[in-house]
Amino acid sequence: RLRGYTQFRYNRLPSFRVNEDLINDQGDRFLGKNNGFGIRRARLIIFGDVHERVSIYLQPDFASVISDQYNVAILRDWYADIFLDSAKEFRLRVGQSKVPYGFENLQSSQNRLAFDRNDAINSAVKDERDLGIFFYWAPSEIRKRFKDLVDNNLKGSGDYGVVGLGVYNGQTANRPERNDNLHVVGRVTWPFLFGKQFVEVGAGGYYGRFNVTASPSASAPYALAGGENDLVDARANVSLVIYPQPIGFMAEYNVGRGPSTGGFGDFTIDSRPLRGGYAQLMYKLDNVAGVSLIPYVRGTLYEGGKKFETNAPRYDVRELEMGVEWQILKALEVTAAYLVSDRTSSRAPYQQQRGDVTRIQLQVNY
Amino acid sequence: RLRGYTQFRYNRLPSFRVNEDLINDQGDRFLGKNNGFGIRRARLIIFGDVHERVSIYLQPDFASVISDQYNVAILRDWYADIFLDSAKEFRLRVGQSKVPYGFENLQSSQNRLAFDRNDAINSAVKDERDLGIFFYWAPSEIRKRFKDLVDNNLKGSGDYGVVGLGVYNGQTANRPERNDNLHVVGRVTWPFLFGKQFVEVGAGGYYGRFNVTASPSASAPYALAGGENDLVDARANVSLVIYPQPIGFMAEYNVGRGPSTGGFGDFTIDSRPLRGGYAQLMYKLDNVAGVSLIPYVRGTLYEGGKKFETNAPRYDVRELEMGVEWQILKALEVTAAYLVSDRTSSRAPYQQQRGDVTRIQLQVNY
Amino acid sequence: RLRGYTQFRYNRLPSFRVNEDLINDQGDRFLGKNNGFGIRRARLIIFGDVHERVSIYLQPDFASVISDQYNVAILRDWYADIFLDSAKEFRLRVGQSKVPYGFENLQSSQNRLAFDRNDAINSAVKDERDLGIFFYWAPSEIRKRFKDLVDNNLKGSGDYGVVGLGVYNGQTANRPERNDNLHVVGRVTWPFLFGKQFVEVGAGGYYGRFNVTASPSASAPYALAGGENDLVDARANVSLVIYPQPIGFMAEYNVGRGPSTGGFGDFTIDSRPLRGGYAQLMYKLDNVAGVSLIPYVRGTLYEGGKKFETNAPRYDVRELEMGVEWQILKALEVTAAYLVSDRTSSRAPYQQQRGDVTRIQLQVNY
Predict the structure, then answer these.
(1) ipTM of the complex model
(2) Measuring CA to CA, which residue among C175, C277, C196 is closest to residue C235?
(3) Arithmetic mean of pLDDT, C240-255
(4) Which of A9, A23, A37, A61 should be substituted to probe chain B, the one whose Cβ sees the most B Cβ atoms within 10 Å?
(5) What CATH number should be reported for the domain whose range is B2-365?
């Protein structure tokens, strides 16, 4: 069976403080100067049960980029779920799939309110995915609850188990593994029901060693501290979600250490401390002239490296995003948001940039 | 729902004047020396209505090229039609789709008689597509007529509206936008019915600024005139189609200005005048021993640049193509054609080449 | 209609003689140091009859690699079968498809027991495929037999005709043709039935000229002998398959000449003699505690070049693989094997390497 979604964006609407050097390669490649319309995600998902104990989930993205060539088909998910019991409470997930770290990482971009994931948690795993074997357990009743939280448009994460454990390569999705050791990850979460209000609380962490790419030049001699690569990459996080019935709140925070320069002007790459999180408030308004509206405001903080970028630059991110999602039809959503951003640029020499952006996105679900 | 088509070619049949330096990168990458069998197009289209007011059309091409790597999956179309009224006469098309400029650009390669599109009009938009928002209007009766002209194998363009308006990035499909302004396009067309004979007359134009890539060397110092990029790129065209019932005729002509060198030996790139068009005569023979035959002859003229090629070389093209399409089954078409060509090479130093080519193509429709 | 399969691997299980320099780019890119989990094949096949005389078979692989970018969608098969008679005994296959040379090359990786194809025969055609036109003939009764040999999990090759003839570009799949001549191939095979035992005997050969890529450096001056490229590339092979009912045996051998260096330290590339083959013993155990088990042992020998690799290095390969395929469900197979290998490295300076590897693979069929 086929389904999918596509996100079209236009980021050049007027804002109070335009800064053409404000760019964010991980979040949205259509920021910064010389941009116009963009296809942010173009997903087609092939999924189904191939046996009562085996199901597949194959998701290429048709809006991926190889150097200057846009819109190449590259994998996101490509995994099989192997159910260990007939009630499907215990399962192994083999292949490339999301690493169970954090809540927003696991929530589909199809369901997320904010335009992009927060830097604090998302810097843990580029594209949220890696290649490995994961074990998930969730009782039937909670599996149903995970499903309902998505189906009722309460912006759930879907079912990544109440307990999730895994081992994976650690160099992030669609990249060659570059060392001989694996990352390990663990996560526990529970969607409580208080009366009619769903509240989900979770915690988790991962540990591994990451192989960084440095690209030194005469004026910017980026180098590994002591010449040693395969740097310690480890984090712990907590998350809280109060589902929007109608008022909602979600927050996550993580601390740890990972590959990073020491900041602007420091060219030494080492495993350094990092910390950050976000908090978001939202309000779900149903049947406003026949449509559903969800205004939201989100604040993000992050101080730490992005290990998967060349030279593992250190980021200092402070962002506030105010937006509204307008679900016109089940097939059609428009989101508009105003972003106040103070962040390190994704391009060398990784300078700090302050600017605002007004963005609009049309999402088509199929 | 899925459909698609594939074109297999062999271009090395004997001709009166073989010229191994006669190449045409935009038209057919299997021309010139060191070639054999080729897959020119390998299309798979996923389309359908996801709501009574929303439909999607997703078309990757599996025969695209990234440097030396053939047959990579890259997008062609990826758009949603959003109908503004229940009769579906007014619609917005959002995403990557064909730019409504000219007739042959909009006609599917699945339906075109000639092996490749004409240089005169096709030089306006590489791959015929760009990323943007387009508005189309056509009365229900004319929408049906557009559909019939394709279904009855009269080689129509499909429904791009009687009126089409749009804004788009302007750097052509699957390429990063490289400036902050958009292209605008407008087109009007009408398929008249005189007795039983369909005749379509159209006109349109576009305006924008295009960012050129120059690749200078010591011996060939290509450079932008005055060092300024984002050159004016604007055209107007007219088209006439007399559908083959059984005799048919089609012609288009366009004038304008766009990025271009001054010709062979002139290394200055500037916005320069361009002009050109084509005329084609065809005859539809049905039920010739159970199959359908359409012989055709087409002449093309073009003087102007190809903005999307490195250095925006100036082309001088004079071509005559004589061929016949032989529809064996609905699923299987063979086309053979003899091409007499005098054209500028697509490779530096962009010399003029005179040669003939005999080509055969098998098209499979599914 | 859609079907496909995926192979996930982990190659770093303990072995008696670990050699991190033992790599084999054609066979398994997840060998050697700095590796972990890998997706070896991620296939999705779209196939069907579009007319009683025309069928299509479109197979992209989503685990292909472009330089450092893993998991890009690139073609494997993309062809149409055109049946010349209503009994479908005679057919033309047009497009990119498997070159009918050898048995194991034609057998799907979905059905093969060993982890990778043998070097001896597989060095004839990278990815087993090329672009061209092939003619196949098989009587209806034998077509059914070919089908049964696959359906009953006897590890057949599928129907590539009792007689197969073809012309193709010769530079192997998804690569530009680089000369003006074509390769020709012919093959005859017959699946005999002795009582209840199926035995298949085949023979074939091909001839063409291959254009080699040399990458010389100061210390390694790789060069074409006499400066001439388009080297003779010709082989003949014989194959014998005794299908596992329950004991099975298969062997192939080929001799010929093809582009190759003279071995380690010889930098001259010329058309040189090559020879090699493999023999495999297997035993099909059905209903062992509800599942099917097939242990196998395979020995491979090859002395000759790999024309499609840069510099066409000469290989000396001696390998022994002992493994077992465990078919848990129709949808799920696990294979584990121990490989004893003495082979030339795929990377310059192409040194001989001796080492063992223990591998495990999960295959999901859908």
Answers:
(1) 0.94
(2) C277
(3) 98
(4) A37
(5) 2.40.160.10
